[in-house]
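One chain is below:
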Amino acid sequence: MNPILDPTVCLPDAEARVMPDHRVYLYGSHDNPGDTEFCSTNYVSYSSTDLIHWQAHGTIFDSTNPKYAVNNGLTLGAPDCIFNHGHYYLYYCMYGNRMGVAVANSPTGPFKNIGPVTPADGQSIDPAVFIDTDNQAYYFWGQFNLHGGKLANDMKTVIPSSINDNILSEHEHGFHEGASIRKLNNLYYLIYTDISRGRATSLAYATAKHPLGPYTKRGIIIDNTGSDPESWNNHGSIEWINQQLYVFYHRSSQNSIYNRRLCIEPLTLHADGHIDEVKMSSTGVESALSINQTISVSRLSRMRLKLPFNALIEPMALHPSGNTDTLAYIKDGDWVQFDQVSFGTGCRQVEVNLATPKPMRIEVWTEGNHCLGSIYATTLTHDWQTYQSYQGSLELTKGIHQVWLKFCAEQHAVGRLGNLKSIRFIEECEK
């Protein structure tokens, strides 16, 4: 389910890599939940064999710990990692446009710094590394303008004569930052953060017949706009896993451009090399949100807010609550979306876990602009932190559907209505 990691884990900018042990490893930045700054001073990693169950490997690199041979305390930005020459090479960037590489004997480190990547060090951000089928390694970096060239055998020197300083640009390709490169069916794919829709919320792709271009922009893969009131950027990768292509991307939370969480969607790759744009979903690689399952609000894929006249009014957003989330600051007219919700063989009842000192109702809608029913909150809680269960009746519904929850004020209530933690659809046969 999306997001794929615990809601308390913010791992944006993810590079997903299938390593020699056939596990998928995640390498990304590491946001501190609730912080007002991108990233942190360490990297953590997770791995999986099925993209559903993820094993945490803890800290693999830390700029504040001498054992990693950096110890300068600088914030670490988006990384990449590759296996070559029997070792694992972790490429990192730091505040001040510093770029370097660390090496380990394991995909989970600990990675020890072996020095800067020249001449990229000091020039820009967001490293990307790629090894072609002829074993030639390439290195890419840049913001607004993408640079790239061949890596020497030391894996930390970009051969000057091979460098192309104009692989992608903002004005021509919408390139903002965050390049990632893969080779699929003898075609090279550059995935990158695209700003052509006004904000850097999209992942686009361009293709070429050579790693260093020239590249032709082909389209957008995914756009995370609408996942949070302050969605700003996206950054991720694609990876071919068990005969299926996937995109790894992030979306924001907590009404913030920070606190970014990792998600996955399957992709369709056509014979002509085209990749269809996909929508954010609640389910990711899984088929459905099960009937009778308590569905955390973390699983919502999209939200729409009634825009306030006063910019100081806190908008509806996901906020941390222990090891899960609450959908806080709900107001009249707001709504949220859940995808692939199973109603089983028949559902007539829905239950929510809600805190509301004000009378409100929650309408349940499905495809075709069809309202199934409502939940009325009439027995009120005393504050925004006391939760209780409310139930409502629905029109008999079967199968799997997209679901929207619309929040409505009752009895002329104004302002903030309530906080929602979860929703559950109850199969008719359940007592």
Observations:
- The helical segments are 170-173.
- Residues 61 and 93 are 12 Å apart (CA to CA).
- The first helix runs from residue 170 to 173.
- The mean pLDDT is 95.
